Fold each of these.
Amino acid sequence: MRFPAFAVRLVAALALAAPAFAQEWPAGPVHIIVPFGPGSTPDLVARVVADKLSPRIGKPVIVENKPGAAGNIGTDAVAKAAPDGQTIGLSIAGPLGVNSLLFRHLAYDPRKDLAPVTIAATQPSVLVVAPRLGVDTTEALLALLRKNPGKYNFASMGGGTISHLAMEALAARSGTQIVHVPYSGSGPAVLALLSGDAQLACLPAAAVIPQIKAGKLKALAVATAKRSPILPDLPTLAEAGLQDVYADAWMGFVVPARTPRPIVQRIERELTAVLREPDVREKLRAQTMEVVAGTPEEFRATLASDLARWKPVIEKNHITLD
């Protein structure tokens, strides 16, 4: 079968177009939108990456903080940005998936309006208690809670956050009752533990390690599938018999869903190359984070796993945020 000459030329042009398209990125400054305030964990990651990404691509990389509505405002800005690779988002499990279970009316659909690029880094969440409780293990804590249902408070970084859902899952798995006291972030939640307004919490490692080292909080376990290299001596909740109570505090890069695949692939290559640089790994490890730098497919699998894990917890406890 013979093809017309113009068809052969068209196929050849299309074959060459994708690499050329990717090479043209970026056309100008790249904006990384972080849906949380300055100093937040995603903000720290974004700024470390931006400093290294800019010289690699030969364009300015600007970090923009757009906090509000549990991360939905900034993430919505990414979803509605032009799909040209000039706008990248760095967000967490809530705005990228779990919030679709918590908000009846989201301005964007995480699954349809965003394309995952790579999970940048993760850090363990740590089950901590006030030393005055007098417990040194998760098993001892659960025994205390079962003897005193509804007596103790747990602090969270806000309703619907992983720090909230992890404790609801812990209570459900262990048959205990704990009173939830939401705060506006990890800092206020830690202050509540120190002041006695709350007695326990499951918070990102970066928020609690200084207080653990100072002896002001007691770490009992990590809420991860396996022991964390950051806190290798801490057992997992699973080792205490609490299966499937995971609260990995990961952060991932996303772009608008209609971004051309060659550009997404180029962004993925550049971001993962930056994340794998030894000094970047060290900077993030100093902030209790481990680099992931996985594939978009691995990112999608993590999102699906999170939704499957948290949906029954949210439904059982009738948790909504609007």
Note: The chain is about 45% helix and 20% strand.
Amino acid sequence: MVEAVEHAGGHHIALPLKTKTPFGIWRNAARLEALIRAHNVSIVHARSRAPAWSAWLACQRTGTPFVTTYHGTYGETLPFKRRYNAIMARGEIVIAASHFIAALVTARHGVDPSRIRVIPRGVDPIVFDPTAVPPERLARLTQAWRLPDGMRVVMLPGRLTAWKGHAVLLDAIARLKQANVVCVLVGSDQGRWRYSAQLRQRAEELRIGERLRMVGQCDDMPAAMMLADVVVHASTQAEAFGRVVIEAQAMGRPVVASDLGGPVETVAHGVTGLRIRPNDPGTLAAAIEQVLAMDVLERRALSERARASVPTVQAMQQATIDVYRTVLARWGRERAE
């Protein structure tokens, strides 16, 4: 998004922030400190842990307000991991992607709820607009993915990793009473070729191999969503938010989502979609069949309710700017005192 940022008048400066070594974090803190002083930076907003440590150190040295966005559940299986994760809770204000994450931040790190702002992620209603996708884009994906005529499409968007529940969906597809369903997995395996191979093997064992499409990364998700009769969120672990859920809702697609984490807040069961027990192929299969059995009027009503409920990127941006204003006003008062 660098081109878009610069086109809008922003100044993008690249730094080697991927490093997680103590020396790399310390070195990046010095670089950020220099940038803050050179550009008279008013506020620093960190969204990832290693860069956040560098940013926090630089802010401590320069007296600059520090804001964070806590948008992951962040595992704690390794020693000292909670301490490493805790940097995301050190912001003057901590932005949480959902009420689920807000509660997690308070429980894990003891952050006063008054320092937390829940700002859901949003979609751009101009981009994710079912009336704005021309037939040519649909035809391109239909051909590239070899989608047969007359087949219903059940789609799971998300990178290929086990906790996203791809195997749960395959088991659910095998349980469906109708055979005119093709399962489309959209997302990169990010080098996890063994996992991809396991999914293909599982599909063969279930005798649905010919109805599985693993299409990799897609650069046109609005068109991809439009091809789906059902969009599935089958994660077996709680997600901080679940962006694909609101993207599907914005495109008017019926959503079946795991009843945990962020989607609990974006899918009103029976109103804007269906929520099901996680890691339960039988319940998932029943929910998919329920959606596929809806008539035109039922689908349209569900679509309209879902689209009306979707948070927008514009609302997310405005809420974030309001956080900046609050922090800067508070910072100004404290300096004056």
Note: The chain has a mean pLDDT of 95.
